[in-house]
Amino acid sequence: MQKNYDFNLEKRLRDLSADLHKRFTDTVFSMQFILSNYKLLFPEYTDHTELHSLNVIDFCNKITGEQIDKMNADEIYCLLVACYFHDTGMGISRKDFEEFSKEIDFGDYFQTHDSTNAKRIIRDFHNEFSGRFIAKYADFFDIPSQEHLKAIIQISRGHRKADLTDTAAYPIALKVPNGNTITLPYLASVIRLSDEIDITAARNSHLLSEIPEMVSDMQMMEYRKHDAVKDLIVEKEQFTVVYSIDSPEVEAALFSLFSKMQKTLDECRAATNGKTKYCITQKEIVGKKI
Questions:
Q1: How far apart are CA 7 and CA 103, in angstroms?
Q2: Distance, CA of 213 to CA of 247 (rounded, Å)
Q3: pTM for this prediction
């Protein structure tokens, strides 16, 4: 299915700030080479390249909707850059993995997980590794201030797991040097939702269909689950998942995915609605079988 992008956020940024728009486009050019590194560790996984970033941006456009008129240039810039940075942790080097692991709070994770399984650790904490990657290599991307850098890191980290209601980590009004404020809970909620709903068949790795014997049964079920999703439509009050199934097992897996997506949506609404000047208008995940 041919996808049409409207690029409203990028156009709005260009109109509001030529400087920030230039910084963003320079970042896009650099990131297209970095994002593909995830394939070195996870060749069988769903797409995490710049194509995924484009999809996330497209969903950000749809979720923000008319609220784009409230957003200032700094908010748009940080959100767009975070869309390209949020999965950098999936392709870090062994050296960076060892360095960043010393800084990340893994909680009680290793009580139930193998501490030598670097691949699993990176997958489960890739948002935290992304945050460390951004902080370490920030100078390469011409980020305008430390405040912008903090915002980009937190928005990127917030695409999964992070508590978006923690106002110490996600202040409602982070002030940047020009006097503008960045609404971190809202922007992190938008990117979390946008990442969560990028689940269509187009993200599937060709490896699983071409060399199925190389992947586990669990990975193959993930492939079949995503392959069943033909479209995801963002409407004002709901997300509609259009799907076609070939077995009860796949349908059960999809219903489990819908429940997970609804939980994420509820968390994002709780972090944003009534607490910031913004609102997540979508209320539910709806499946549409074809």
A1: 36
A2: 20
A3: 0.93
